[in-house]
Amino acid sequence: MSARIAAYRGISIVAAVCLALLAACSSSSEEASNSVPTDALFDCGGSRVETNFMHRRMAMIFDGKAYALAQAESGSGARYIGSDGARKIEFWNKGDEATLTFGEKTYPTCRQTEAVAKP
Q1: What CATH number did the domain enclosing 60 receive?
Q2: Would you say 99 and 91 are in contact if contact means Cβ atoms under 8 Å apart?
Q3: How many domains, in total, are found in the chain?
Q4: Which pLDDT tens digit goes with each residue over 59-69?
């Protein structure tokens, strides 16, 4: 099995757990048009960010840790917010670029390096 396939399987498992946790805490209904998840890899100034978008949620692996973020209001693009318990996390993307903020630290512009649409 290639490292890329193993990485995608790892992302999928973590994403499924994160999404299940978010779903348990959510009271909003999901729209059928948002039911296709997309995995995307981003490079944020040399830091790798693995993402899984599904419905109004995003699972993210950054620096070896998994985070579950919920979609928030945005004037443009898609904005996801969450917390690691101590710091606010925000991932805001539009097209193939994004901004990642952990607490007071904003990483250099994230650029999508790869995307895989799941059936």
Answers
A1: 2.40.128.200
A2: yes
A3: 1
A4: 999 988 999 99
